[in-house]
Amino acid sequence: MRRQSEEGPLKLHVLGCGRGCQRQEDRGEVVRGDLVVTKGRSRVPVPSGLTHALGGAGREAETRLRRAGGAMGCWATFRRELRLSNFRVTHPEPHVFLVSEWQEQPVSCVRPWYVVYRWAWALYHLCWWSASLANEGGLDASLKRKAYHFIYLTNWAYLSIVVMTAVHAGLVTDAWLRYRRTGQLPKTTTLRFKVLWVMQNVVFLPALLITAAYWSAVYNPADPITAINADVHIINSVYVLLDLCISATPVRILHFYIPFLFMTVYLVFTLIYWAAGGTTPDGFTAIYPIMDWDNLSVTLPFVVCCVIFSPFMQGLVWGVYRARVAVRERCCGGRSSLAPLPHPATMDVILGRDASMESVYARTPDPVTGQTVSLSPVTPQNVYQNPVSPQTQYQPHNNTQQAPVTQSV
């Protein structure tokens, strides 16, 4: 295959597809949805505020390009999500596990309010789990009676929420304290972040499945709805959906195998428990009516449905995550950690002028001072290999000057 040349016309477009785009995104250079200028394989991001500063022509160009690239970008995002590399539990930006989606971008620190948010949920779930365990069989029940608490999938899942929220709160607090001392956020995805990500996958999907299965197949309308019952079968999913909308934690479709393994472990436990003669507190051999090993005509279809629908449910969770990112980018700008001023040819491309890479002598009004801005000539090597500092990129001068200021790179 012929290698694509670095030479070629300048193009302004919305980043949304291609393997090269994904590689640059993984390195933190550009992010899907960024407005970029390309020349061959090279890409330079355009700050979101620049086109607005340039007036109607810039805003119109950006709007037109984003509308044209939106559908293609969504499909390309979905295709990249299904790459085999996404089976791995690794991420190029570990700070996303420590911050909110809605704080300033690029991320500069861990916010104290987010530390409080994480500890509030951790303590909330710990208190409700403790109340649920104490209420098992009554407050004066024996330890043997309270041990039945651990045979139910609901309690397995809720205990995993308790552990995950406590671990998450601890990691966020540790990062916040480290930032106060060093002024830096983690740069690599260490084991503790991988463990946290696995735990979040164990929590998110099972919580939604348990809520759906309980209210559709297990709940008896004749039974009263207690506060504990509502917490472990309703608030658990409310927490998951709320946290998916607030935290910056990413979601991968191909991580569906993690909650599936969790459910498989519980399924094997119920089989062993049934084979050993275990019963519920009421003396039934089936822990749940839909998981009765004495009646495989009910249990096997349920197991098959779980196997088939786990990837689809994980896809729904991923859809919530992508919706969060899309709203964030539309309302508050992209998540790119790179925000340099663009090279001089960028404004010519946005305004539809001749953007020759050999000689660019654009003259536009400075958005701050109102003075005329002269843009110095650039070359492909200067533009894409040697970023220009804000101090040398634009040189305002009075209208009597004609010669452009030489750019030092």
Structure write-up:
With 409 residues, this protein is mostly helical. It has helices at residues 19-26, 48-53, 56-81, 112-135, 143-146, 153-182, 191-218, 227-246, 257-275, 296-332, 344-350, 380-385, 390-393; strands at residues 11-14, 35-39, 42-46, 363-365, 372-375, 394-397. The two termini are 34 Å apart. The model is unreliable at 1-35, 47-55, 336-344, 353-365 and 372-409 (pLDDT under 50).
Distance between the termini: 34 Å
> What characterizes the major β-sheet?
3 strands, antiparallel
Within the largest sheet, what's the order of strands? 1-2-3
Element-by-element helix/strand order = EHEEHHHHHHHHHHEEHHE
Counting H and I runs of at least 4 residues, what is the number of helices?
A: 13
Radius of gyration: 28 Å
Q: Give the amount of beta strand, in percent.
A: 5-15%
Total beta-strand segments: 6
What's the rounded overall pLDDT mean? 74
| Overall 3D form | globular
Helix share of residues?
A: 40-55%
Structural class per helix/strand content?
mainly alpha
Low-confidence stretches: 1-35, 47-55, 336-344, 353-365, 372-409
Summarize the structure.
By secondary structure, this protein is mostly helical.
